[in-house]
Specification:
The complex is a heterodimer of chains A (424) and B (337). Chain A has 424 residues and is of the alpha+beta class. Chain A has 2 domains: 106 residues, Sandwich (Immunoglobulin-like); 251 residues, Orthogonal Bundle (MetI-like fold). In chain A, 54% of the residues lie in helices and 18% in strands. Chain A is built from 15 helices and 10 strands. In chain A, helix 1 packs across helix 14. The two termini of chain A are 18 Å apart. In chain B, helix 2 packs across helix 4, helix 8 packs parallel to helix 15 and helix 10 packs antiparallel against helix 13. The chains are: A alpha+beta (424), B mainly alpha (337).
Chain lengths: 424, 337
Amino acid sequence: MMPRSPLARKEAGLAYALLLPALAVVLSIVLLPVLANFWISFKAVELSDLRPPKPIVKLQLRQWPKNHGDPLVIRYSLRNSSQKLPVNNILSRQKLPAGMLVQELDSRCVFSNNELRCEFDHWPAGYREKIQNVFITDDTFTTSKKTFKQSNIEISGEAENILTSFQFTLKNYIKIFTNPEFFFVLKTTFLYTLLGTLGSLFLGLFAAQLLNQHFAGRGFLRGLFLFPYVSPVIAVAFTWVLLLDPFSGTLNTMLVKTGFLSEPLNLFGQRSVMLNLFGFEVQFPLALSTVIAFESWRYFPLAFLFILARLQSIPNELYEAAKMDGASPIQQFRFITLPQITGILSVMFLLRFIWTFNKFDDIFLLTGGNAGTRTLTVDVYEQGFALADLGAGSAVAVIIFALLSLFMILYFRFLPQGEEESNA
Amino acid sequence: MPEWRRALAAALIGGVSACIFTVIWGILLLFSGIEPILIPLQGAFISGMLTGVFSEIKSLGEAKSFFISIGLGSILFLFLNDFSPWNINLEKQALAAGLGTLWVILITVWSTRKALAGIKLEGLDRDEIERLTIRIFQGMGLLFFIIIVAFPFIYMVITSLKSQMALLTNPTDLSISFESGLGGLIKSYQEVWTTFQFQRYIWISTVVSVGTVGITLSLSILGAYSVTRLRFPGRVWLSRSILIIYMFPAIVLVIPLYSIFSQLQLRNSLLGLFIADLVDHQKRKEFLLLLGRPDAALQLVASLQIETSNLRRRHVHILWTGQIIVMRTAEESETFG
C-alpha cells in the first residue's frame, strides 16, 4: 500500500464529490425500493391496504325545526373504513351555525363556542355506530336546511399503517412455494430465458457472419438489421400480435389459403399442440415457442452488433496464414473465428441471460402471461396486481432477486480475463 | 457440356432457388389482392433445374447462354404449369403471371451463376465444396434476415394506411388503395391526431423524456468522469456494485414504488411518471452503464449509440404509424381517462 499523498487525497475527495449526486439518485430510486420490496414481502399486504384505515362520518338530519324553539335532531353515522385494522383516538369537529343550544348530547361529545367536538378512543375493524344529538334553535338561527347539510365535519384518527408496522409473516412465501403452479412458472422462466438467449445469439452470430464481407448495400442492411432492437416494444409487439392473429392475422390467413394449414393456429393463445413425430405424440408448447421466437428476433441485433465489431477486429493476417496452410473456410471459422469470438459470445450470453430473465414487457404485451407463458416477472404482476396480493408479488420479486444474485456471482466468476481487466 | 458435377450443382441450386422465388411471388400476389390458388412447386423445381443447367453452358458464350437459358426456362416454366402459373390465367392477368415467370427465371439464372462463379468442381475439392455450401447458406440467410426484419415494419406502415374494415375482410390483401385519395390513406393518422389528442401524448412524452435524460446525463457524466479518470479508494468496488444495481429488474421495484406512489397520491401524475421513467430500465441502462463499465463498455455502448441514434430518429416516423397508435391511445385513454 502506497502512502497517500495530499494530492491523492485531494483527487479522491473530488471523485467522491462528483459521484455523490449520482449515488444519491441511485440510492433513492433503486436501493430503497429494493429494500422496501424485502420489507413488503414479509407482510400480509393487499392492494386495498394501500389506503390506510380512516374514520368516516356522515350526517343525517332527522328533524328540522319549523319554528324557533323546535328541536333540531342530527344523526351521525360513524364507521371505520377498514375491515381489518382498528382506528384509535378519533376526533371529529364540526362548526355549527349560531343560534343552536344543546338539548341532548352524546356522552363523548362536547359543544362549546358553536363547535361540536366528539372524541372516541377506539373503533375496531369494521366498526359502525349511529349517534344522535338534539339541539334547540332560537331566533338567531337563520341557516337553511341545504347549507346546513353541506357543513363540513373534520374527522381524524390514528391508525396503524400496515406498511410501516412491525408485524411480519411468512405467509407470502408459504403461499408461493405451496402453489404447484409456481414450479411451472419457474420452469417456463428458465426455458424462455435459455432458449431466448441462445436464439438471439445464434441469429446474431449468423447475421454477423453474413455481413462480415464486402458487397453493395452492406451498410444499408446493417442499419436495417438494427430495426427490431431500436424500435419501441409496444409497436413491434402489436405488429406481431396483429400479424399472427388467428382470425384476422395475415400470416394465418396466408397459410390457410395456400393450404399449409387446415385451420388457423392461435400462436399467442394456445398452450400447446399435439405433434406427430415418427409415430410419437409430442406436446409442443406453442405460445411459449412464439414468445421465444419474438425474443430471439427482437434481441439478435444486439448480439449481431457486438459480434460483428469483434469479427472486424480479427487481423486479416490470421486468415491469410491459414489459407497458406490450406485451411478450408469451415476450418478457418472453427479454428480462427470461433476462438476469437468466444470472449464476446460468453459475455453476451451472460448479459442477455440476465436481461432476458428480467424481461417483463415483451411477454406481458404479447400474451399477458397466459397460455403457459407466465414467467417469474409476469408472476410478480399477476400476484401483486391481478390477484391484488402485494405481499405475494413482493415475495416472487425477492425470489427473482435471489436467483439474479446467483447469476451475478456466476457472471463475475466466469467473466473472461480480458473483460475483467477492462472492467476494473 | 459442362463438367457433370458442376451441372448437377447448377441443377440443384436452380431448382431450389426457383422454388423459393415461386413461393415468394405467390405470397406477393396474395398481398396484392390477387388470389393464387396454388403454388406450383413441382413445375418450378423441374424448370429451375433445367434453367440452372442451361445457364452454365458456357460454350455458347456468356451473353448467349444467358438469354437462351432465360428464354427456354420461361417457356418450360409456363409449359409445366399449363400456361397458368399460380393458377393465374396468362391471358387475363398477363402482367402478374408473365412478370412472375420472368422474375423466377431471372433470379434462378442469377443465383446459379453467382453461386458457381469461380468454382470448377473438377474433382471433389473440400475447399470448393465448402465455399459453395457457404455461398448457398449466405444467400438464403440474407433473404431470411431481410424478410424477418423488414416485413414487420413494412406491414406496420401498410396497415396504418388501410382501414380496420379492409383489414378484417381480407387480411392477406395488403395492397394500398388510392381510390379514396390522400384523405382515405391518412385517415388513421387524422383520427389519431384529432380524436385521440395525440398532441397531448407527444407533449407528455417529450417533457418526461427530455427531463429524465437531462437529469440522468448530467449526473452520470460527473460520475463517469470520476470513475474513469480519477483514482480513489473503492473505485473497483464501486464500479462493480453499480453494475450489480444495473442488473436489477424494474419489476423488483414496481410493488414498492406503486405502494409509495399510492400513499403519496403520485399515481397518475406527471411527477409520478417522471420518477417511474427515471427508474425505468432503459434509462438506468444508460445511466449506470456510463458509471458501471467505464472503459470497454463505454466504447461499445458509444458505438452502439452512434449507430442507433440516426435510426432512432428515423424510426420515430414508424412509431407514429396509425393503426397501432390508434389501438395504443385508445387503450391509454381507457386506462387513464
